[in-house]
User: Which sequence fits this backbone?
């Protein structure tokens, strides 16, 4: 018997070696034909910053809040909510439903549309932050918005420039990604006339992506009068509006004010689709917490839309994570935590705006003769400086200041310890050169 087992073992070993040899040397692999993909523009810069050994290095690329010492900041209201969750003996780690935590979704939509808004006809699901909301929403629109006459895809018009991920997300949803003018590089301000002209020329029934507040990357938002005109035009052209809200409360420090454009469009009868993220305004970057909602016209429409959103989500990621949504739910269901949260949000916005103003002041102090007033007129996390790619490359190579090559500076990366260094460097690379084109 022992010899039989030994013979079987030797036979198995020989077969395994033979299989291994054939697998490694003789069988062609499709993997050898997989091309190297390009690195992500922003995440690649973040990796370059980490590997840089220059003690002077400054990261003004990342779109995440930093405190006055340059460190990530967990909002005190968020930390308290998390402590309550950890101490709750009834908490569990069960799957969430496909549409997510219904109570969280209700609270999140109330935060966006207003506490007094009638949400009975609004379909809403929990998503993997704003990115997931855009992906689910884009899929839904691609599937159900009627294609304009003569087109084989539903066109979606996104601002030029916009958050870089929008392009890939909506392309992968099967939408025809087109651009509308948004930023005038000759004035470093909103290209309102170009925006209106392009939306007028868009095929009737197109989807239009709108940044709800604190446009990324420019920080240029329309005035409320301009928003009203945009709303009227979209109705006239029978376009479909898709709002992306990533900075509510973080932009101005006032969550109600930051939702004004969205709420205007709802009040004017648009079938609004909203992608909502809690990454920036709650500091829940790694928790992937968001929602997607669709403002419907009847309970029947809401039921049908909810069913289709679930059908999109189920094979995509099945159900969302629960920790971040539980934090938001805990904060927004407790009056004291809610009040503290609004204070935390105001603190972040105040520091960001202080850095915006101080950057322009220090640029003048170090001798810059450029007009930087467009920076102080912008809002939100970023300053869209007007610097070109060569200037940005020089900032990185000469001064180890890491930023995106479109001249966008994350003001959250500035503090009293590095702002003069950054201002002097910006002055050096822009002296005698134009910051408009």
Assistant:
């Amino acid at each position: 018997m022992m010899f039989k087992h030994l013979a079987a073992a030797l036979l198995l070993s020989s077969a395994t070696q033979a299989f291994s040899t054939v697998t490694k040397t003789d069988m062609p692999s499709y993997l050898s034909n997989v091309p190297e993909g390009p690195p992500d523009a922003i995440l690649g810069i973040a990796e370059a910053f980490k590997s840089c050994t220059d003690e002077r290095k400054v990261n003004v690329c990342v779109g995440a809040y930093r405190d006055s010492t340059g460190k990530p900041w967990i909002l005190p209201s968020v930390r308290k909510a998390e402590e309550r969750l950890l101490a709750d003996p009834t908490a569990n780690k069960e799957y969430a439903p496909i549409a997510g935590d219904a109570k969280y979704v209700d609270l999140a939509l109330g935060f966006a549309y207003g506490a007094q808004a009638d949400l009975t006809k609004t379909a809403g699901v929990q998503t993997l932050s704003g990115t997931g909301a855009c992906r689910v929403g884009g899929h839904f629109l691609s599937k159900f918005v009627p294609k304009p006459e003569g087109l084989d895809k539903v066109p979606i018009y996104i601002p030029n420039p916009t958050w870089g991920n929008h392009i890939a997300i909506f392309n992968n949803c099967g939408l025809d990604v087109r651009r509308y003018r948004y930023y005038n590089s000759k004035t470093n301000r909103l290209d309102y006339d170009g925006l209106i002209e392009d939306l007028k020329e868009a095929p009737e029934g197109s989807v239009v992506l709108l940044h709800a507040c604190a446009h990324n990357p420019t920080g240029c938002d329309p005035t409320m009068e301009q928003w009203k005109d945009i709303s009227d035009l979209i109705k006239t052209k029978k376009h479909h509006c898709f709002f992306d809200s990533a900075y509510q409360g973080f932009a101005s420090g006032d969550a109600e004010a930051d939702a004004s454009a969205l709420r205007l469009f709802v009040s004017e009868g648009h079938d609004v689709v909203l992608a909502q993220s809690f990454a920036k305004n709650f500091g829940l970057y790694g928790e992937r917490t968001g929602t997607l909602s669709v403002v419907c016209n009847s309970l029947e429409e809401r039921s049908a839309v909810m069913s289709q959103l679930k059908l999109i989500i189920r094979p995509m990621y099945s159900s969302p994570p629960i920790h971040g949504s539980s934090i938001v739910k805990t904060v927004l269901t407790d009056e004291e935590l809610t009040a503290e949260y609004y204070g935390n949000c105001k603190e972040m916005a105040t520091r960001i705006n202080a850095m915006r103003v101080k950057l322009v002041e220090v640029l003048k102090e170090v001798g810059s003769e450029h007009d930087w007033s467009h920076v102080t007129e912008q809002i939100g996390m970023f300053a869209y400086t007007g610097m070109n790619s060569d200037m940005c490359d020089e900032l990185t190579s000469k001064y180890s200041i890491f930023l995106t090559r479109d001249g966008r500076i994350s003001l959250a990366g500035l503090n009293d310890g590095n702002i003069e260094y950054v201002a002097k460097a910006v002055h050096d690379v822009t002296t005698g050169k134009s910051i408009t084109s």
